[in-house]
Amino acid sequence: MTQLPTFDRTELETNIAALGLDNETYQEYLLIADLVFRGTSNDMRASKPKVGKRTAHLADRYGKAAYVWRMIGFTVARSGPLQCMPVCATFDLPATGPDGRWSSSAAREMSKDLDRLVDCFVNCLPKSEWHGVNRWGRALGYF
Prior knowledge:
Helix 2 (23-36) crosses helix 3 (56-76) and helix 3 (56-76) crosses helix 4. The protein has helices at residues 9-17, 23-36, 56-76, 104-122, 131-139. The longest helix is centred in the middle third of the chain and has 21 residues, at 56-76. By secondary structure, it is mostly helical. The protein has one domain. 50% of the residues lie in helices and 0% in strands. It is built from 5 helices and no strands. The protein starts with 8 loop residues before the first helix and ends with a helix. It is globular.
């Protein structure tokens, strides 16, 4: 089983507020963050949020939460399958182009925005717990 960390929700909310978002985006980030947690606990859920058939608005939020969960897992998981490169993480994002079909360029733009939320989570932990960053940094010769 993948070992995922526990987060301080109050610190997470402080980190999100520090981004200076408008109220609607701030509330959306909090809702996405709630989907990353297991119920009301401070633990991350053991698997990514399911992105099945839901109403369009909920499917969008669950898709974003799945991306955020995967990127957090890649950055901080101690072991398990989450330590592999998340090359398919954007596939769950509700990113459509002008023609109404899924678009990789739209997914890239959306992921850049959501990476700010990922950073809010990761910055709640000491750098010694950034296991993925440390592992890949050693593998690539950065440290």
